[in-house]
Write a structure and sequence with these properties.
Elements: H1 6-32, H2 37-40, H3 51-70, H4 95-115, E1 122-124, E2 137-139, H5 140-166, H6 170-180
Antiparallel strand pairs: 1-2
Length: 194
């Protein structure tokens, strides 16, 4: 009977966490598949959320947390620094470009997490106007779980918007793709390919 080293356990944890994040991204991509720019910019509920805006936001979320992990995030973010269009698909933006940015952010985030020697390493979060006065530190693991939570949270929003838009069911799309052995992007099921 073989033994499992601490390094093997840590590598397994890392891959498990990245797999669950990738799976959630795939679920999100099923929801935004097969729509055009006009549909991506439509509001279908009383909120201002759109499918294109959610794609943009989740790309930004991954880039923002990547900066925290790699130490390039600003120490403080004020109200003036926050992009009022960060959650909106603005005129001139295309869903294709927003999806490309989403995929690039996902690939870079995953690459950085794979190269991180210690998921237990502490990182300091930027101070926002709503932050408590004392600095907040999280582990890289916590950041990874937070990114998962953000994507999962917005998957629910996207499902509601898409169902109100044209009745499409993310679950039905997932089942159909599984029966064909393909992912939301038409690829191998990873959901983060181009």
């Amino acid at each position: 009977m073989g033994t499992t080293s601490a390094d093997d356990v840590r590598a397994g944890e890392r891959e498990d966490l990245l797999t669950i994040v990738a799976d959630q991204r795939t679920n999100f991509l099923y929801t935004v598949a097969d729509i055009g720019d006009e549909q991506a910019g439509l509001t279908t509920t009383v909120s201002e959320l759109t499918l294109g805006g959610l794609v943009k936001h989740l790309g930004d979320v991954q880039r923002t947390w990547l900066a925290v992990v790699d130490g390039t995030a600003p120490a403080e973010v004020g109200w003036a620094d926050l992009d009022p269009d960060g959650n909106r698909m603005t005129d001139g933006e295309t869903l294709a470009a927003l999806l490309d940015a989403f995929h690039a952010a996902a690939a870079e985030f995953d690459r950085t997490v794979r190269q991180e020697p210690d998921l237990g390493r502490l990182v300091t979060l930027p101070r926002y106007p709503w932050s408590p006065p004392e600095p907040i530190t999280w582990t890289v693991r916590h950041v990874l779980l937070h990114v998962f939570r953000e994507i999962a949270h917005h998957c629910g929003h996207a499902d509601i918007i898409r169902e109100a838009l044209d009745g499409a069911s993310t679950t039905a799309r997932m089942a159909e793709a599984a029966s064909h052995g393909t992912g939301a992007d038409g690829g191998d099921g990873s959901g983060i390919g181009s």
